[in-house]
Amino acid sequence: TPTARAARAATTPALPGKPTNVLLMGSDTRPSEGDPGRSDSLILVRMDPDRDLISMLSFPRDLWVDIPGYGQGKINEAYTNGPQATIDTVEQLTGQPVNDYVIV
After folding, report:
1. Per 3-state DSSP, what percentage of the chain is helix, strand, and coil (rounded to 5)?
2. Where are the alpha helices (DSSP H) in the chain?
3. What sign does the CA torsion over 69, 57, 24, 34 have?
4. What contacts 37, CB < 8 A, 6 or more positions away?
5. What was the pLDDT predicted at 9?
6. Helix and strand tally (H, E) in the chain?
7. Exposed, middle or buried, 70 (CB in 10 Å: 0-12/13-18/19+)?
8. Three-state secondary-structure class, residue 95
9. How far is it, in rounded angstroms, from Cα 18 to Cα 49?
10. What 8-state DSSP symbol labels residue 99?
11. What pLDDT does 90 receive?
12. How many CB atoms lie within 10 A of CB 87?
């Protein structure tokens, strides 16, 4: 889909042997109702093979942030503009690249 292609384009390819960041997005989307949904669960998972470590950072859904290209709002609102907006928001907020994503 165009939305999936845009989100994939927003990610940064992971380099072999280097840390990888995966953004988990829990969506309450209801396509039958025309609702784009929100991502009330957002977790950035970092897998670091050099340190033999996996860490997770959970973002509160009401965290007030700058949504690149859309202004300020709660972090869960970024998803209403597509998963790529959520990826861009998390990258700007953390300074970390998002190498992949999963929508649940």
Report:
1. 30, 40, 35
2. 2-10, 83-94
3. negative
4. 27, 28, 29, 30, 79, 80
5. 83
6. 2, 6
7. middle
8. coil
9. 7
10. -
11. 97
12. 25
Cβ contacts of residue 98 below 8 Å, gap of 6+? 10, 11, 12, 21, 22, 23, 44, 87, 90, 91
Per-residue pLDDT of the chain in tens (104 residues, 90 and over written 9): 777 787 888 888 888 889 999 999 998 776 666 667 778 899 999 999 999 999 999 999 999 999 999 999 999 999 999 899 999 999 999 999 999 999 98
Cα–Cα distance measured from residue 19 to residue 74, given in angstroms and rounded to the nearest whole number: 28
Tokens 């009330």, residue located:
40
- Helix or strand or coil: residue 83? helix
Rg (CA), the chain: 14
Query: Tokens at residue 98, please?
Result: 């998002």
Determine the pLDDT at residue 11.
Answer: 87
Burial class (CB in 10 A: 0-12, 13-18, 19+), 9: exposed
Q: Supply the pLDDT for residue 31.
A: 67
